[in-house]
């Protein structure tokens, strides 16, 4: 997104800066605020699995309506499991040409079912059941034509 990664979450959790100094407001979307990851330490799992991190999440819950945490892939490092324990729900994001189906199935089966909100399929090519661009254009022209005649 073209933003500096520091200061961010790591600096807040280490006490090197205040939360309000690390949160960025997106100019184009005034209701969107970002908390970058910060300078990655040798063991981020220790920072995420700490009392300051749990306290920070409670503070953020009071300040914002929705909090979306973007984590590492599920099977790569332990960060995902730690973060999902702090979250109310989990959305899995998969990409057809990158996601291993066996790993996805294991993740779905191992994920707490009360937290699994759904799956987002990213970077999907057109599907044969979707309307083609041509039929969409035709439908749109029909609506515009009817509006003009009214």
Model description:
The chain is mainly alpha-helical and 150 residues long. The protein has 2 domains: 1-69, no CATH class; 89-150, no CATH class. Helices cover 41% and strands 10% of the residues. It has 7 helices and 4 strands, in the order H-H-E-E-H-H-H-E-H-E-H. It has helices at residues 9-13, 19-22, 44-48, 51-63, 79-86, 101-110, 133-149, and strands at 24-25, 33-34, 90-94, 116-121. A hairpin with a 7-residue loop joins strand 1 and strand 2 (33-34). The longest helix has 17 residues, at 133-149. The chain is globular and about 50 Å long.
Give a concise summary:
This protein has 150 residues and is mostly helical. 41% of the residues lie in helices and 10% in strands.
Set out the fold topology.
Blueprint: H1 9-13, H2 19-22, E1 24-25, E2 33-34, H3 44-48, H4 51-63, H5 79-86, E3 90-94, H6 101-110, E4 116-121, H7 133-149
Parallel strand pairs: 3-4
Antiparallel strand pairs: 1-2
Strand order of the largest sheet: 1-2
Cα shape: globular
Q: What does the largest sheet look like?
A: 2 strands, antiparallel
Alpha carbon gyration radius = 21 Å
Which key phrases capture this entry?
two-stranded antiparallel sheet; mainly alpha; 7 helices; 41% helix; 2 domains; two-stranded parallel sheet
């Amino acid at each position: 997104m073209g933003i500096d990664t520091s200061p961010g979450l790591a600096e807040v959790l280490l006490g090197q800066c205040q939360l309000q100094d690390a949160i960025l407001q997106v100019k184009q979307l005034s209701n969107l605020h970002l908390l970058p990851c910060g300078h990655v330490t040798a063991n981020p799992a220790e920072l995420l699995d700490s009392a300051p991190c749990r306290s920070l999440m409670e503070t953020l819950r009071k300040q914002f309506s929705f909090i979306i945490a973007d984590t590492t892939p599920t099977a790569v490092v332990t960060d995902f499991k730690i973060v999902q324990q702090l979250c109310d729900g989990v959305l899995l994001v998969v990409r057809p040409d990158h996601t291993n189906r066996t790993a996805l199935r294991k993740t779905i089966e191992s994920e707490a079912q009360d937290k699994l909100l759904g799956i987002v399929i990213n970077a999907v090519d057109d599907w044969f059941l979707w309307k083609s661009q041509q039929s969409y254009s035709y439908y749109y022209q029909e609506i515009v034509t009817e509006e003009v005649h009214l």
